[in-house]
Every structure is written in C-alpha cells, then in structure tokens.
Amino acid sequence: ISLFGGQITSFRQASGDEVLYIRPDAVFDRSKPIAGGIPLCFPQFGPGAIQQHGFARNVDWSVSDSSADPNPDDREPEVQLLLRDNEFTRSIWPHEFQAALTVNLHGERLRLDFRVINPSSGGTFDFTAALHSYIEVVDVERSAVKYLDKVVSATSPPECEEEGEAVLIQGPVDRVYLDAGEYAELHVGNGAAVALSSHGWRDAVVWNPWTAMPDAYRRFVCVENAVAAVPIRLDPGSGWRARLELYVNDL
C-alpha cells in the first residue's frame, strides 16, 4: 500500500501469484499518480471540471487505524487510510470532506471499503469516484470479462466482441456499463478468474489502451468499479460508502 494516493500496489495469493498489474512506465517518486495497482479516483472519475480522475491519486493519505496497533483483538490484517480536505484540495475543489479507505485481508480475499463524509460544517457537494483496478492477465487476447450487463456507453471504437455474457478484447476498449450489477469476473487466461464482488459501486468500466501502450497492453485489463454516470450528492452531515472484494476463482 502506498500512502501517496492511498493506493494498493500489490495483492498476491498465498502461492505468490500476483493479481494486480503495475505498468512499466510507473514511477514511485510522487511526481505523478502510480500507473497500476488500484488507483482511487475521487472526487471526479474521468474528465471533467478538475483534473482527470480527481486529486486523491496524487496526494498523501494518512494511516488512521491498523491491526498493528496495540491490543488488536486478533483482528484480520487491516489498515484504514484517511484523506481530509486541505489548502491544496480546496484550491482545486472548494469543499470540506473526509474520505476513508479501509483495506482488509480476509483469507485470500482483498476487501476495500471506501467512505466519503460531508462534515456538518460543509455545504452540499457532488462527486464521482472509482476503483481503477489493473488486473494482470496472461495475454489480453486470451482474457474475457464476464457477467457485466449490456454496454451503454463507448468512448472508443467498440473493438471488442460480446459473446453471450463474455467480453473479448481484440482492440482498444473504454466501455462504461451503467447499473452493472454487483459481480464481475475477469478470466485471465490460465484457468483462473479474478472475481470482483461489490456493493455501492453502481457502474463498471472495462479499459485497455491496446497498442497505444505497446509495452504493457497485453498484460492487463482494467475492470473498474465506479460511480460514473450520476454523481453522488452529499448534504452536510451525511455520508456514502461502497465496498469491493477481490479474490481468485479456479475455473
């Protein structure tokens, strides 16, 4: 976990197999968001009034709690990261907020619980958000995304095929699925699938840039859990939460 961006950069199974993908152009010097793992997009997902995917990916978070603290009461490995508004964030997005990401390991399952609170002293604000998961595959052309509902928005040419319930990627893809349901699988090409079970993330995105990233595109697919189409509105004193659980299934 990187405190810069509050970002998961690795999730390995007990076998040592990596689930997530870090792009070869990723840097860890805080000069720009980390390209890979699970970037957290907030308070904006995609393009819009502020920088692409918001500022949460390129600011420092703090640790507010962890199972390494004294008297852990036999808790599972867990850490809670916290981001509050500050002078920098208010210069970009003029709202008071508190965002918390709780990261928990339950056996071989990675659980992410994301909460946003509007302090009672703040005004009403709207936001969009996403967990921009980069998942490692054997070869993108051997992968398939399953159990997403019908595509309703395509921001790049639809150079992928939907065969029944599977999405096969055969070219650049950037597709938004609205009200996508709470479960999806990415078949990674080696007889295993990464399952994404979620609650509160209404939408989903499948992204692969194809040969625009020649050194990377064959090794990952982004399956992103998002609130993309209809922003969340929080009145003063209210909050919102969503969760995601990642785990590997044998096929």
UniProtKB/TrEMBL annotation:
Keywords: Isomerase. One of its GO terms (cellular component) is cytoplasm. Gene3D superfamilies: 2.70.98.10. Its EC number is 5.1.3.15. The active site is at H132, E224. It catalyses: alpha-D-glucose 6-phosphate = beta-D-glucose 6-phosphate. GO terms for biological process: carbohydrate metabolic process. It comes from the Eukaryota. Belongs to the glucose-6-phosphate 1-epimerase family. This is glucose-6-phosphate 1-epimerase.
